[in-house]
Design a protein that fits this description.
The protein is of the alpha+beta class and 293 residues long. The chain has one domain: Clavaminate synthase-like (Double-stranded beta-helix). The protein is built from eight helices and 15 strands. The strands form four sheets. It has a seven-stranded mixed sheet with strand order 1-2-3-13-5-15-4, with helices on both faces. A hairpin with a 6-residue loop joins strand 9 and strand 10. The radius of gyration is 19 Å and the shape is globular.
């Protein structure tokens, strides 16, 4: 569509994703957002350099994509008083940050998977701390026919308890009441949802893999066989040209489609602060709900 060039989209050299220049997200009119949304469905990841959105502006932009699962959540190794959280020890926020360094989709462990996310950089370390994304549409298309046929009818459970336990993190009772503690989001008492390994995007119709660190326990397979298959799928999927890692500059903003991308954080020296702010876009219950058997 000719008008789309006004957004100055620049492909990032992967199977997905675009850098968007020449737009102020605070001033985007309805027609401009319609073009941007079309580009988002096509590219799945849009990167907006140096927008410097305030909290209110970030929430307002995120809400244009739909209802929010939550407005704002800091992903930070800074406490409210400005002190650094210790990298080694019992700090549950740090344990969540380290867990997020594995490839995953957001909220697959909740009954309704998230639609997407707006993410902004406030403080970045001198090196490391990038965010990576991986294209599960292109990954599915790259699978051989035999593997596609094998996984077409398979499903896996998804649980934050499971994924964090792989790192030795078992949430402590009563810890949420402590100052600066992790909120406990995702550690719910409902049964884990069962999600198909092959997901069809509700708006584009493109199939993609639904895998990542929260997935486990494929019904019908032995535990070792399930873990091996899920591990091999992630290792295959998360390879160039299906991956992109963004080196942040303070003020950068991104929006990604959680229904077809995995993402992860990259380690950094936690003697330096890193402050990111996340707004999570709620999924449509009709397409993103998964029951717990």
């Amino acid at each position: 569509m000719p008008e789309r060039t006004q957004l100055k989209l620049e492909a990032i050299g992967a199977s997905f994703g675009a850098m968007v220049r020449g737009v102020d997200l605070r001033e985007l009119d309805a027609r401009g957002f319609e073009r941007l949304y079309e580009a988002w469905l096509e590219y799945a990841l849009l990167i907006f350099p140096e927008q410097h959105l305030s909290d209110q502006e970030q929430v307002a932009f995120a809400r244009r994509f739909g209802k929010l699962e939550f407005d704002l959540a800091p992903l930070s190794n800074l406490r409210a008083d400005g002190s650094l959280r210790p990298e080694h020890g019992d700090d549950e926020v740090v344990k969540i940050l380290k867990g997020n360094m594995g490839w995953h989709c957001d909220s697959t462990y909740m009954p309704v998977q998230a639609k997407g996310a707006v993410f902004t950089a406030r403080i970045v370390p001198s090196s490391g701390g990038e965010t990576g994304w991986a294209d599960m549409r292109a990954a599915y298309e790259a699978l051989d026919a035999e593997t596609r046929e094998r996984i077409q009818q398979l499903s896996a459970f998804h649980s934050l308890y499971y994924s964090q336990s792989k790192l030795g993190h078992i949430p402590k009772a009563g810890s949420r009441s402590q100052p600066d503690a992790y909120s406990g989001y995702g550690f719910h008492d409902q049964g884990p949802p069962l999600r198909p390994l092959v997901k069809v995007h509700p708006e584009t119709g493109r199939p993609s893999l639904l895998i990542g660190r929260h997935a486990y326990g494929i019904p019908g397979l032995a535990e070792a066989e399930s873990e091996k298959l899920l591990r091999e799928l992630v290792e295959f999927a998360c390879q160039p040209p299906r991956t992109y890692h963004h080196a942040w500059t303070p003020g950068d903003a991104v929006v990604w489609d959680n229904r077809c991308l995995l993402h992860r954080g990259i380690p950094w020296d936690m003697a330096e602060p890193r402050v990111m702010v996340h707004s999570r876009i709620a999924g449509d219950r009709e397409s993103e709900f998964a029951p717990s058997p």
